[in-house]
Amino acid sequence: MTRRWALEGIENFRDFGDYQTVDGRRLKKRRFYRSASHGRATDTDLEAIAGLDLALVVDLRRKSERDRDPSRRPPGFRGQVIENDIGNEGEDSWMVHVRDSDLTETSFRDYMLGYYRTAPYEERHVDLFSRYFKALAGVDGAVLVHCAAGKDRTGILVALTHHIAGVHRDDIFEDYLLTNNPERLAARMPMIAKAMEEIAGRAPTESVMQVALGVDADYLHTAISVIEDGHGGLDPYIEHALGVHPALRATLRDRLLA
After folding, report:
1. pLDDT (tens digit per residue) in 134-182
2. Contact present, 163 and 256 (Cβ < 8 Å)
């Protein structure tokens, strides 16, 4: 199965369905998608997306990100959109890091590890994740999860979705690491390097850009470890922090699996 979709203005667009689960079933195919922002979607992209029968879109970006880069949707789009404005005060932490750091690989890796330590319990994420799972149980149609780059916030929520479905841990990480597609990194690097130079007043190196634009298994492991420390495991976190009680979880599995 080809997971990556080559769209013109939306990067990191891929299908996260059709994985086998530990009980021998499979996630439905062509029903679960993930991507980066849709603010630069071309008309051709919108035509392709219109054919997906999207019933639910989860935009994990902050309000400031959505205002800066408003999403484009296909004409006549009627799907449910989940977003929130919680915790939008203050400067964007990534921009602050770019401005104030020494722009080294180590500083960006440390920033990302710190981000993943807090992300699972950030109020706005708990709200978005919880609403997503409740909506996912009831929608009839395809689902799209996205943030700005489609790698960190999206990566955590997709990993939780895979876990609920019963996808093997190895496949969860394999899907997460598909963000490190070399073609994607090469295409995105010039634009992000320019933006970082404007913020920091100096140009980042290519090795720094690789860290800034990619993901690392240690990041997702960090988020999972934080959840395990806080709740004793992913399942108690999903139930008690996100409100996915056993009946809802059973409904979700029926929704997710072929």
Report:
1. 999 999 899 999 999 999 999 999 999 999 999 999 999 999 999 999 9
2. no
